[in-house]
Amino acid sequence: MSLTVPPALLDAAERGPVDDADFVACVRASLPYAWETVSRVVADLDAGGAERADNLVPPPTEADRGQLLRALASDAIRAGLERHFKVKLAFQNCHRVAAFRPAAVDSAAYREFVSPRGQLLNQSPELRNC
């Protein structure tokens, strides 16, 4: 299971749309490693003047790797994180998540990161099984 959903939030979802802040809080509590990684990348983006910041450090455990994969593979979770942090997230391999300023989504840096070439250049033997 990707998320540990509190009973009250599940009840709310069964009745209709849920509050975005409640959903994001569920993500934060359920996927702490993914939350920390995205938070750190966004903080790096905010601290610098670049169009993007990204994580180059592989997850320390398979469980952490799984959290990051679940968070970024789910359209709902990824979009919730993007709305919360006001960024565009991009993802390569099992750990390389990048945050882009919304205005940079049409930039050369973004297009390069999400391109087939960018994916291929980010491959290495130790990342083939992630």
What's this model, at a glance?
The protein is mainly alpha-helical. The protein has helices spanning 7-15, 20-30, 32-47, 62-73, 75-85, 108-113, 116-121; strands spanning 52-54, 88-92, 96-100.
Strand portion: 5-15%
Number of helices: 7
C-alpha termini separation: 19 Å
Which class do the helix and strand fractions yield? mainly alpha
Strand tally? 3
Q: Sum up the overall morphology in one term.
A: globular
**Share in helix:** 40-55%
Task: Summarize the biggest pleated sheet.
Answer: 3 strands, antiparallel
Contiguous low-pLDDT stretches (5 residues minimum) are none
Strand order of the largest sheet: 1-3-2
Order of helices and strands: HHHEHHEEHH
Whole-number count of domains? 1
The Cα radius of gyration reads: 15 Å
Mean residue pLDDT: 89
